C-alpha cells in the first residue's frame, strides 16, 4: 500500500485549520493579540533570518513545549493570545496547527505562505550579521 502523499495531508490540514494572511498575522502581532511561533529548524533561522518578536519552537518539540503537563513545557506558549505558527512555506505549520488542534489548542492559526510569504511581503526580518 503506497503512503499518503504529504501534499494530501497538508491540503487536508489546511481545510481544518485557520490560515491568516501575512498582513493579518502582522497586524495581530503588532496589536498584541497574537504570538508568532517559528517552527523552522534553527539552521533555517540562521540562514534566512527571523521575524522580530517571534518565539522559536522547533517543530520536533512543539507538542512537548505546548503541553502544560509535559516536563518540557514552555510557559511562553501558555497564552490566551492567538498562537500563529509559521515555517518556510506553510506545509509544516499546517500539519502542526492541525496536531495542536487535535490536542485541544483552540487559539491556533498559521501564516499563509509562511516565512517566505512574510519576506516577500516586505514585512520586518532580523538577520544575523
- Quick check: average pLDDT? 96
Strand residue percentage: 5-15%
Helix content: 25-40%
- Main beta sheet: strand number and arrangement? 5 strands, parallel
The CATH architecture assignment turns out to be 3-Layer(aba) Sandwich
Distance N to C terminus: 48 Å
Rg from alpha-carbon coordinates: 14 Å
CATH superfamily: Rhodanese-like domain
Give an account of the 3D structure.
This protein has 129 residues and is α/β, with parallel strands linked by helices. The protein has one domain (6-120): Oxidized Rhodanese, domain 1. Helix content is 40%, strand content 14%. It is built from six helices and five strands, in the order αβαβαβαβαβα. The chain has helices spanning 6-14, 22-31, 42-48, 62-66, 91-103, 114-120, and strands at residues 19-20, 34-38, 55-56, 82-86, 108-111. It has a five-stranded parallel beta sheet. Helix 5 links the parallel strand 4 and strand 5 (108-111). Helix 1 packs across helix 5 (91-103). It is globular. The mean pLDDT is 96.
Task: Give a short synopsis of this structure.
With 129 residues, this protein is α/β, with parallel strands linked by helices. The chain has six helices and five strands, in the order H-E-H-E-H-E-H-E-H-E-H. The protein has a single domain, classed as 3-Layer(aba) Sandwich (Oxidized Rhodanese, domain 1), CATH 3.40.250.10.
Amino acid at each position: 500500500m503506497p503512503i499518503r502523499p504529504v501534499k494530501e495531508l497538508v491540503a487536508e490540514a489546511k481545510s481544518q485549520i485557520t490560515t491568516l494572511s501575512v498582513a493579518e498575522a502582522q497586524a495581530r502581532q503588532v496589536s498584541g493579540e497574537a504570538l508568532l511561533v517559528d517552527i523552522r529548524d534553527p539552521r533555517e533561522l540562521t540562514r534566512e533570518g527571523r521575524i522580530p518578536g517571534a518565539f522559536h519552537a522547533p517543530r520536533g518539540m512543539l507538542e512537548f513545549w505546548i503541553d502544560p503537563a509535559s516536563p518540557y513545557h514552555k510557559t511562553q506558549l501558555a497564552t490566551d493570545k492567538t498562537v500563529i505558527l509559521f515555517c518556510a512555506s506553510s506545509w509544516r505549520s499546517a500539519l502542526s496547527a492541525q496536531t495542536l488542534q487535535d490536542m485541544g489548542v483552540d487559539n491556533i492559526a498559521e501564516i499563509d505562505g509562511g516565512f517566505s510569504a512574510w519576506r516577500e511581503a516586505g514585512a520586518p526580518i532580523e538577520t544575523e550579521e
